[in-house]
Amino acid sequence: MDLTQGTPQEKNNRAKKMMLWFGIISLIMSFAGWTSAFVVSSSRPDWLKDFVLPSAFIISTVVIIISSITFILAKRALKSGNHKATMLCLFATLILGVVFIFNQFSGFQQIIDLGYNFTGPTSNVTMSYIYLIAIVHILHVVVGLICLLVVIYNHFKQKYSAENMLGFELAATFWHFIDILWVYLFLFLYFVR
Question: pTM to 2 decimals?
Fold first, then answer.
């Protein structure tokens, strides 16, 4: 397909989708760097080999997977013209995103209760990596929540339809990406010691 063909609107839509994918690829590279550093650092003598991820991280993983499902349901409802169901599913996704962040901070508290802070004399390099990776991911979930709020506002203003849903699709793609990213990070931290 020739990217230079089509109406100005089609070209604009393709450009926006391409910019999102460039951003996603750069995020993949960043997290690949952090997880690679995690693997390299695991040969240090002070590395914790027997750490257990907080149970709150398991709960947050389930929550974020459900949030992707509610976003998919919102898109289906939008395509079928069901304004009310779309709004309900978007709000459910928003609430689940907030619950995810709450559980992440609960997980941090569980790590602190084990005696490991992010920095200082009670820190450990293993746990500092876990904090860093989770906090940077939380920041991206916050960006996803802001995008979701914009989508909810635009949907309330009836700017989306089955034929015009670019902003909705961009937000959904980003949301699914940060969801898949967390599942990867959780499995990585769970299995890589």
Answer: 0.90
